[in-house]
Structure formats: C-alpha cells, structure tokens
C-alpha cells in the first residue's frame, strides 16, 4: 500500500511517499481502507521528534482515519467487511489502509469521512476541554485563542451549545469572519488582548480561556482572567511555551488546567466513549459542523503539515489516499 513514511525524525520535507506492507487483521484488529485521514498539529511535531512520544522508525503518522472495513480479525464480533467506520489510531492514518482494534473503531454510516475525522481529535479535544476540564457553565464567557483552526472552530461551536458567550481570537479579518460564521458572538485580534477581553466583559475578565497558542497570548490572558476562571492549556502553536507568574493565580483566584486528550482517552475510556456518542449525536442533528478547508492527495502530506504548523490553515484539512 502507499503511505507517508517517517524514516527518521527530521524536517517535514524528509517524509517519504512510498510503499509499506499492508496491515493484517489479527486478533481483534480491523483493517480499514482509508477514505480520509485527518491532519492534526501534533502529527507535524511527531515526525520531527518534537512531540511527547517518539515511536520507533520507520512509522506512518496519522492519528485519525475513516473509511470502509476491508477485513476483520477472528476475535472481532461487532464489525464486518463493508461497514463504514472511523478510528483513532496512535499511528498509521496517513496510508491507503490502517489497522485498529475494534474497541477504537466507530461505525459512521453514511457520514462524510473527512468531517468525521474532524470530530475525532479536533472536536474531541475541545469537547473534553470544555466539559470535563473547564466545566463550562451556561452564561459564562469563553475566550478561544487560535479560533479559526480546527480545534478553535470546535471550541466555538461546542461553547455555544453549552450556553457560553464566545469571544474568538484570530489573526486576520478573514479568519475572524470565519469565527463569527461558526457562532462566535464577537471576534477580535491579538492586539491589546488583555484590555479587549476586559472591555468585552465589563471589567470582569474571562471565565474560561481555551489556549492552543501560548506565547504572548497566554501572557495576556493570564492577566485577564475572572475570579474562579479556568485557563485551559491545549498547546503551543506559537512555538513559545510561556512561563506563568504564579502570583497571578493567587491574587486573581483562577486555575490553570492542563488538557491532554490522549491521556483522557486512555485513562477514562468510558467517559471518552460517552463524549464521542454525544458529539456524533450533535453532528447528526446539525448542532456541530466541522469546517473542512480542503481535501488533498496523500502524497501532499508534508506540504499540508507545513501549513498547519505555520498556522496558515483554517478549519480541518484531510488527506485523501
């Protein structure tokens, strides 16, 4: 099969589009012929050796894929060839075929494969962040940084479902327009961010901040939190991991809360399954709608990852084998 191969931790342009052995359906494994693989920010870090995990080489990146079951292992009871499914896979999504245990495979019926991929990691991360980590309440103010990206769009839509007032923060007029189209009550830039948040909350500050950016934006938000606020640490798309003056958390009485969706799926599998059921239900009812910026050939993975890491992407990007 054709796949994107990481032969060593190296710059993105060292990724190879080549041949790998087809995966086998052993035990409880399901082999899926991939219709779409979702592109995520951590994928680009992983292949450069900049992520928390460092798999052995060679490996195929890609943590989410959707398609059609081609083969099932002898221990698989709930799925059969021909079923359309999606999976969260630690590795292997950037390929024509991927194998995954049946416990991490979800039936998707006639849903769009690329949109379902967006629901898995991007919407899954934002859902967990706002529901289990922030305990976002109706009527609270949610500030979303990096709001035009895949997880940002998800946070906007989910925040509105949960009853929050959403302030989106994005870098350009075009991105801010996308944020308001996806439900944000107001969209602002990064200039004078602390003062703008204070102004838009009548001096109270943000109840919840969803921060996938880090750097100077984190510094501004750490000074614009409401009492009992929750500052969610999602990632560091700016490339700058900030340092927190902890005296701010003392005098302003807010919490800094880490969000590591991968750990959540491993340590709380039933809660994760319940979250996915809720997300898929919202999708089927039209309450959430992933924004798919583009669908690109699998061979273009390195170029696409470069755009994602450079914060040039809007919404979700899918690779199509």
Automatic annotation (TrEMBL):
Matching entries from SUPFAM superfamilies are given as:
GroES-like, NAD(P)-binding Rossmann-fold domains
Record domain Enoyl reductase (ER): where: 10-319
Q: Which domain of life is it from?
A: Bacteria
Task: Check the record and name the InterPro entries matching this protein.
Answer: ADH-like_C (IPR013149), ADH-like_N (IPR013154), ER (IPR020843), GroES-like_sf (IPR011032), NAD(P)-bd_dom_sf (IPR036291), Zn-ADH-like_protein (IPR051397)
| Entry GO MF terms | oxidoreductase activity
A Pfam cross-reference name: ADH_zinc_N
Entry protein name: NADPH2:quinone reductase
């Amino acid at each position: 099969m054709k796949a994107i191969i990481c032969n060593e931790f190296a710059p993105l342009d060292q990724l190879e589009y080549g041949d790998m052995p087809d995966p086998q359906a052993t035990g409880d494994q399901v082999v899926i012929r991939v219709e779409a693989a979702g592109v995520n920010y951590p994928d680009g870090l992983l292949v450069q050796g900049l992520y928390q995990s460092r798999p052995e080489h060679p490996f195929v990146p890609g943590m989410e894929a959707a398609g059609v079951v081609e083969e099932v292992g002898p221990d698989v009871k709930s799925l059969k060839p021909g079923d359309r499914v999606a999976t969260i896979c630690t590795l292997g999504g950037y390929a024509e075929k991927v194998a995954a245990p049946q416990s991490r495979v979800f039936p998707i019926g006639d849903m769009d494969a690329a949109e379902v991929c967006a629901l898995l990691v991007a919407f899954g991360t934002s859902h967990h962040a706002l529901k289990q980590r922030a305990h976002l309440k109706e009527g609270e103010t949610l500030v979303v940084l990096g709001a035009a990206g895949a997880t940002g769009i998800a946070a906007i839509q989910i925040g509105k479902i949960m009853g929050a007032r959403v302030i989106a923060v994005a870098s350009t007029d075009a991105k801010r327009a996308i944020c308001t189209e996806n439900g944000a009550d107001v969209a602002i830039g990064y200039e004078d961010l602390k003062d703008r948040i204070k102004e838009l909350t009548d001096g109270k500050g943000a109840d919840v901040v969803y921060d996938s950016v880090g750097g100077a934006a984190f510094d501004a938000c750490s000074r614009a939190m409401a009492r009992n606020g929750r500052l969610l640490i999602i990632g560091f798309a700016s490339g700058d991991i900030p340092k927190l003056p902890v005296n701010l958390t003392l005098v302003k009485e807010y919490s800094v809360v880490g969000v590591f969706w991968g750990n959540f799926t491993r340590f709380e599998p039933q809660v994760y399954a319940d979250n996915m059921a809720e997300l898929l239900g919202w999708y089927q009812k039209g309450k959430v709608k992933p924004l798919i910026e583009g669908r690109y050939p699998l061979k273009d993975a390195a170029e696409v990852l470069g755009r994602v890491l450079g914060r040039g992407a809007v919404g979700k990007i899918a690779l199509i084998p």
